[in-house]
Every structure is written in C-alpha cells, then in structure tokens.
C-alpha cells in the first residue's frame, strides 16, 4: 500500500510542479498586461472582462469534470495576486501638469498608501508632518493637490491652517467622517474641494476592487482627473453626499466597531480560553473570532476616534443597546414564539439579501476551514 501511495503522490507532486510553472508563466503575462494598461491608461480592474473570463473557465472546467466553484476559487486567488503584480508596473499619469502632490500626514499608514500610488503614477509627492509646519508655506507652494490624511480628531484643525493654498489647488481629505471636514475645507479654501473616504485599511496589497467614497464639495470638474486616476488604480468609486455618508457610517463603522469591541471586552472579562475556543469552534465562529481579534491588533486611538467622532454614533449605539435589551427580555421570559416572530421579521427585512449572504459566506467559511491546521 505504501508503495502504491508513494507512486501516486510522486505523480501529484509532478503535476503540482507543472501548476507552479504555469502560474509563473501567467504572472509574467500579467506583468506585460500591466505595462500595456499603464501605457494606455486603462484600469487594472475590468469587471466585465473578469466576469466573462470566469464564466468561460467555469464552463470549460465543468466539461472536464472539474467543479466550477473550484476553478473560480483558484482563479480569483490568482487574479488577486495578478492585480498586485500589475500595480507594481506603474500607472499612466492622468494630470502630468498638476504640479506636486502634498500629503499632510503622508508618513502615516493611509498617507503612505496614497503616496505610493501617486508615485507609481508619476507624480512628485511631498509630505508635511507635524515637525514641518514652520516651513509649511514652502512645502505647499506650487501644490496642485493637497491631501489631509491625519487622525480624525485633528483633521478640521489642520484644514483650518490651509487658507493660503493656491487658488487652483485641489484640497482633499480622507477621513471617515465627511460633513464637518468638508464644511471646513469649503470655508478655508476658495478652490476645488473633494471629500474622500477609502473603505479599506493600510494593509491592502492593491486598490483593485477597493471602495472609495466620494463626496463632492466644490468645482467637480477640477477633481475629475483624480477620480479618473483612482479608477485606473482599480478603485470602485461610490458617489454620495456627505450627510448620507455619515449616516451610513454610523452602522458600517461606529456601531460595528463598538459591537466588536464589546464582544472582545466580554471575552476578556470572562477570561475565556481563546485557544480552547479555537479548537472547539466551527468555521464560522473561527472567522467571527478572527474578526474580533483583528480589531485588537490595530491602533486603539483610531477606533476611539471613529466611534466618538459624532453624536449620531453614540445615539445609534444607545438604540442598539436598547434593542439588545428588548431581545434579551424575550429570552428571559422564555418567549420562544416571540423570539421566532422577531427572527422571521428580520429575515423578511433582509429578503433576498439573506440568501445572497448565505451563498457568499459559504466560500469564506470554506477558505477559513482550509487554513485550519490540526496537530
């Protein structure tokens, strides 16, 4: 039996080597594609091309008895690596006459992400840090774009110091709240103004498929080049007014971060054995626990600033607390029928999204289980 298994495993190893060789060849082709896209100013992410290619590969795989989901999972992972490879070839510069880009807080994590992307696109990038303010006028002179990438709690204070920017300069912020910074930018600077909120962290390998929220402030035409540049980087732009953005962020960020913090705080207070929880967990609980742990591996000041950035956030958290108590009351009363009725009400609220999320989560859970190692 051992001899038979070893012979088959040797053949599998040989096939694996062929797969590695093919992947290397594919990545080399991707690099060439990146050069062509850079030359012609094409986005690195082409959703229609991706969808059509995946549909063809699924059909071809299924014709050979290979599950369509398997080949799609493999190709999506390969494409994620491909987007990173394409990024490093650089991007076409949409506005070569812009002048320099100055990022205030450019040595911070998010500032470095944007600084790198602008540099890859051929722009001259300078940074302005806290120690540089005595010579801020010299750094800002001739700037075509000034991006404010500082902590939320000092964003408006920094913006208020930018009253001497060149009239043609585009002033942008990248904080997670938009109404107040946008109002300060409009009051401080007479030129074009744009509010941005990148919906990703500084650890992204590529901006392909990453969402950037755009809130127009003044002179939309003067900021179109930046929107086009970010699209070339692969970002998906979502346009919304500042008040609607801030209302949505009370749920997407503030409430979600608070609930995650509260669960982590509860585990800490209970002195839960995290290793035992992992050993006994289902794939979905392991994934949920990973998302909780991920929060506490990051900067607490950032999350405190996000949650405390608006009175709307605290009001939303208070309503969450009240709704949590209402549901707990059903359980304390042993009201199984009431709990089921509430469950069905929420299910109706989600509608078809519930089925969509169930389908999407299966892939995530399978990946979480694949990475699990048992001793």
Automatic annotation (TrEMBL):
Does NAD show up as a keyword for this record? yes
InterPro entries xrefs: 6-PGluconate_DH-like_C_sf (IPR008927), Chor_mut/prephenate_DH_T (IPR008244), Chorismate_II_sf (IPR036263), CM_dom_sf (IPR036979), CM_II_prokaryot (IPR002701), CM_T (IPR011277), NAD(P)-bd_dom_sf (IPR036291), PDH_C (IPR046825)
Domain Prephenate/arogenate dehydrogenase intervals: 99-361
Q: Which family does it belong to?
A: In the C-terminal section; belongs to the prephenate/arogenate dehydrogenase family.
User: Which Pfam families does the record cross-reference, listed alphabetically?
Assistant: CM_2, PDH_C, PDH_N
Q: Which organism is it from?
A: Aeromonas cavernicola
A molecular function (GO) term: prephenate dehydrogenase (NADP+) activity
Kindly give the Gene3D superfamilies that the UniProt entry links to this protein.
6-phosphogluconate dehydrogenase C-terminal like domain (1.10.3660.10), Chorismate mutase (1.20.59.10), NAD(P)-binding Rossmann-like Domain (3.40.50.720)
Q: Give the protein name, as stated in the record.
A: T-protein
PANTHER family named in the record: PREPHENATE DEHYDROGENASE, PREPHENATE DEHYDROGENASE [NADP(+)]
Q: Which domain of life is it from?
A: Bacteria
Its GO CC terms are: cytoplasm
Instruction: Report the subcellular localization.
Output: Cytoplasm
Tagged with keyword Amino-acid biosynthesis: yes
Q: State the Gene Ontology BP annotations.
A: chorismate metabolic process; tyrosine biosynthetic process
